[in-house]
Amino acid sequence: MTDVDLEDISTRLADRFGAEAEGWLAGVPAFAERLAARWDFALGELFDSGASSVVFRCRWSDGTPAVLKLSPDGPLLTKQLEMLRVFAPSGRVPGVLAADADAGAMVLEEIRPGTEAENLPPSTLPGRWGELLAALHAVTPPEGWPWTLRGRFEESFDRIGRRVTEPAIAARIGPATWRRAIDRCERLLDTQAGVVLLHGDLHLGNVLDGGPRGLIAIDPKACVGDPCFDAVDYVVGGAGHEGVEARCQVVATACGLDGDRLYAWSRVVAPMFAISHLTYGGAEQALDEYLALAS
Question: Which class is 115-294 in CATH?
Fold first, then answer.
């Protein structure tokens, strides 16, 4: 278990699941060993765990590098499995090697070399992002797919909007700014055309270099909606670098997207980026650009 801050994992899990997450985390090593015996894989080191799961490297019985993902939230894992399986025909998500959603466990192929998109040569990214979106968006949404971009934004505005009254945030983002983002979002949702099955959370940290396979998307939150949405986090990541407007033009061209709509979506999510920036820190230049976009 190298290069992993267990205290940090415990804090993130507690923020998401409450105090009982600490007890669950204490049982994780023994649980992982039982799964290794059950599924016949070699358990490796703990690494790169997020806000809702703990992840171990492992090696499948045929030598395939893999990752074991454990979560205290079985229904969440069930949803993640469903989304990985629906995108499987694209070849642009990790393959599922084993799963027990009731136990809160699944084994996925490990993406190699696995470099995060934000650490790849910037000049290569727009074209590679376009290829990724083309593959993902070519997947036909299953009939009756229950998750939509509208629902995703309703949840996000409700959850993140509770923070607008916090003093440090209220000093930079007022109720009028938040209301303006909601109104802009509604206008874009009401004018969606040619909707596709979106990854739904496609930021630079959720896209890995898969070598000859191209870029691989992890942790999908699949929903049906405007194809521009799967490029907006990448575009807004240009704040403090080449600038959001400049990146938007390049990405829209490379991905075959409507540049005006993509830029409009960047103005919707800008205050959310600003709140994250105010919480976790970062370059003031980027924050100024988020606030200007949100105005």
Answer: alpha beta
Q: What is the chain's pLDDT, residue by residue, as a tens digit (295 residues)?
A: 334 456 778 888 887 888 778 889 889 999 999 999 999 999 999 886 677 889 999 999 999 999 999 999 889 899 999 999 999 999 999 999 999 999 999 999 999 999 999 999 999 999 999 999 999 999 999 999 999 999 999 999 999 999 999 999 999 999 999 999 999 999 999 999 999 999 999 999 999 999 999 999 999 999 999 999 999 999 999 999 999 999 999 999 999 999 999 999 999 999 999 999 999 888 899 999 999 999 9
Looking at 21-84, which runs of residues are DSSP E strands?
42-46, 54-59, 65-70
Q: Which residue from 239, 247, 289, 290 is spatially nearest to 269, judged by alpha carbons?
A: 290
Distance CA 202, CA 74 (A): 23
Contact, 130 vs 256, CB < 8 A? yes
Q: How far is the C-alpha of 269 from the C-alpha of 290, rounded, in Å?
A: 9
Domain 3-109 matching CATH 3.30.200.20: the answer reads yes
Amino acid at site 221: K
Give backbone dihedrals phi and psi of 243, rounded to 5 degrees, phi first.
105, 145
Q: What span, in angstroms and rounded, lies between the C-alpha atoms of 250 and 258?
A: 11
Non-local CB neighbours of 242 within 8 Å, separated by 6+ positions: none
- CA 238: distance to chain centroid? 17
The residue extents of the domains of the chain are: 3-109, 115-294
Phi (first) and psi of residue 43, to 5 degrees: -80, 135
